[in-house]
Amino acid sequence: PAPAPRPHRIAVIPGDGIGKEVMPEALRALDAVQRKFGVPLELVPIDWASCDHYAKTGEMMPPDWKNQLSGMDAILFGAVGWPATVPDHVSLWGSLLKFRREFDQYINLRPVRLFDGVPCPLAGRKPGDIDFLVVRENTEGEYTNLGGVMYAGTEREIVLQETVMSRHGTDRVLKFAFEQAAARPRQKLDVATKSNGIAISMPWWDGRADAMHANYPQIAVEKHHIDILCARFVLQPQRFDVVVASNLFGDILSDLGPACTGTIGLAPSANLNPERAFPSLFEPVHGSAPDIYGQGIANPVAMVWSAALMLQFLGEQAAHDAMLAAIEQVLAQGPRTRDLGGQASTAEMGAAIAERI
Ligand code: ATP
Ligand code: MG
């Protein structure tokens, strides 16, 4: 007999607040696909990268955190942050942002999709009208610490903040986006820019997009200035399939996109190192939601969908598809949590998804 495949090693980090409530529902769904498809998973529970750990030790993570996680194939993450006891910048910079930087997770990927059974804030939209991916550059661009204030405190005060875009960093995100577009039926890529106003970096970004396009002549490319692109997300969401953007523009689009499809409780995200030199991280877009923690009413879909994205990234397409289909059915038929207008608890909705799988 063929040797059993090496299991995917997954670090499971529930984190804080409702992260601790939705993670068990993702594990329930993973258990179901494990049994149905024989997906080999080795789940490694981790209780640090949380404000509870901070309360005990004075730090978010143990000193050897990188060592502990380096051998993992992926990190499944709930949410981090408990502002009542730990300031958000301490919890965030002490955990997630360290992963992003040290594991070179240079792609932030957010699928945006409108489901049957979910009220859409955009009038007249139906499922199928909204189904696209936002690909955000995650490591450079407008988010730097380069710059400073001159003549501080005087009438002559001037502030400078640099943008840094490298050819390496830009080309790799563009390449990833073209690959995503090439793998989807519509063969279309939309590029966010602002070359009419940001006169150095953005024309250069457009030029890199053109250069990469030469490798993918079959893909239709459209460039949009970020202002009109935001308007089109709202007015014409059906025209998008894959959208690629720099760090700042991608940050804006990747919140606007999910906002166009109903509750924040549905939106998943992936922080990817596509070459798999380091573990990639999968987490819901929502935070720890202290306002609803402890009531068992958090929507588990964003967490379950994030786990599905993880399996897709690890090559388990059938398991991903089964999880998505189960989510789709439960959203359409219930049970639904309160943010969707239902009465179900987190566990009831999670159990229904696992049952469908
Ligand atoms: P971040 O931690 O990303 O800065 P935040 O703390 O500002 O985000 P969230 O924790 O995402 O915000 O919560 C924003 C609002 O959305 C809260 O009112 C919260 O209760 C609600 N919310 C977030 N996630 C869910 C969920 N899974 N189900 C239902 N409601 C949610
Ligand atoms: Mg928060």
Automatic annotation (TrEMBL):
SUPFAM superfamilies: Isocitrate/Isopropylmalate dehydrogenase-like. Keywords: Manganese, Metal-binding, NAD, Oxidoreductase. It holds the Pfam family Iso_dh. The keyword Oxidoreductase applies. Its EC number is 1.1.1.83. Residues 9-353 form the Isopropylmalate dehydrogenase-like domain. It is an enzyme of class 1 (oxidoreductase). GO terms for molecular function: tartrate dehydrogenase activity. PROSITE patterns: IDH_IMDH (PS00470). Its cofactor is Mn(2+); Mg(2+). It catalyses: (R)-malate + NAD(+) = pyruvate + CO2 + NADH. NCBIfam families: TTC. Belongs to the isocitrate and isopropylmalate dehydrogenases family. This is D-malate dehydrogenase (decarboxylating). It comes from Ottowia flava.
